[in-house]
Amino acid sequence: MGADATWQMRHEGELSARTVRKVERASGELAAKSVAAMAERLPWFSRMPADQRASILLITQVEAAGFIEWLRDPDTAQRPKTDAFRNAPQELSRWINMRHTVLLIRIALDVFEQELPKLAANETERAALAEAAVRYGREVAFTAATAYATAAESRGAWDARLEALVVDGIVRGDAEEALLSRASALGWDLADAATAIVGNAPPEDPPIAVKDVRARAARIDRPVMLGVQGSRLIVVVGGPTTGSARAETVLDTLAESFGDGPVVAGPTVTSIADAHQSTAEALSGLRAVVGWEAAPRPVRSLDLLPERALTGDADAERQLIDQIARPLDEAGGAIEETVAAYLEAGGVLEACARALFVHPNTVRYRLKRATELTGRNPMDPRDAFVLRIGMAVGRLARSRGTW
Length: 403
Prior knowledge:
alpha+beta, Globin-like, Alpha-Beta Plaits, Arc Repressor Mutant, subunit A, 17 helices, 5 strands, 65% helix, PucR_C-HTH_dom, PucR family transcriptional regulator, CdaR-like_regulators, PucR_C-HTH_sf
C-alpha cells in the first residue's frame, strides 16, 4: 500500500468540514503571508520585477487552493494536484533557478506549518493539518523539479539551434546587430575577445563531439560557441589566447576535441562582432595548411600567410606586404638587398658578404635589423620562407601598381 493511501486511511475523517472551511477561507491570507515571508527572508526576492513577484503570489494561491481541494476530498486522487508550476510563465525561470525555488517552497511550507494548526479544533486536527502540509509541500517540490527539468530540456534544444545560427552567421559574416542579439541571448559577453578554431569534426556523432568540446572548455573556464558543418568543426572560444602561459594552452586543449588532420586558429579579435574575421582567416588557413607539411597542431592562420597567399588569399597577401615587404622597403635598400642576397646564397653568411662586397659582420647587423622590423629571422628556415614569399608578393604588388 502506497504512502498516499496510508495517509488517507490514517486521517480520513479526522478533519471536520468546519475546519476545512476555515482553512479555505484563510487560503488567501496564507498565500499573502508566505510571499511576505519570502520578501523578508530573501533579499533577492524584493529585487525581482513586480510582475514576477505577482506570478509567485499567483502560484502560491493556486497551490493553496489545490491543498484545500485535496483536504476536502482526499479520495479523489492518490496524488494531490500541483499544476501551478507546470503552468507558470516561462519568464519566471529566467529570474529564479531551482535552488531559489526550493527556498521559496520551504518558506511557504514554514508559514503553512505555523498557521494551519491555529485553525484546528483539537490536537488531532492539528497533527493532521501539519502532516498534510508537509506532504503537500513535498509534492509541490517534486512537481517544481519536474517543471524545471522539462524547461531545461526545452531550453537546451532551443539554445543549440540558436548557437548553430550564431556560428553560421559568423562564418557567413551576417549583419552585426542580429548576430550580437543572438549571441547575447546565449549569455555570451559581447565585450569578450574571441578566437575561431577550425578543423575536421571527430568521427563521433555531433552531440558527442559538442559535449567533448564543452567539457574541455569548462575545465579551462572558457566560454565557447560551436557548430558542426558537414565534416568541419568550428569553435569560437572567448578570452585571450596569448599573453600568458595559461592563455597559450587554450588552443592546445580545445584542439584535442577535433578529428584527425590539421587544426587552424584564426587571430584573436576584440569581440564577437569581429569573429567573422577570425573565422575567415582560420578557414583560409585550413585550405592552405596542406602546403606546410610540418605545420604544428594547432597552427595559427598568421603562421600560414605564405601558403594562404599562394592559394590566392588577397588578405594574406596584404598582410605579407604590411608585415614583410613594406617594413623592409621603408628601412632602405640595403636591408632588403641584404635579406634577398642572404636567401639567394642559401643562408651562407660569407657567400652573402662576398656577393655584396661587405664584411660578414655588416651582413649580421642588417639581418638582425630585418628581424626587428619584420619579426622574422632570415636564419630560421621557416622564417626565411615567409620572408621570401613576402618579398615576392611585395615586388608583384609594386609591378601592378597596387602597393
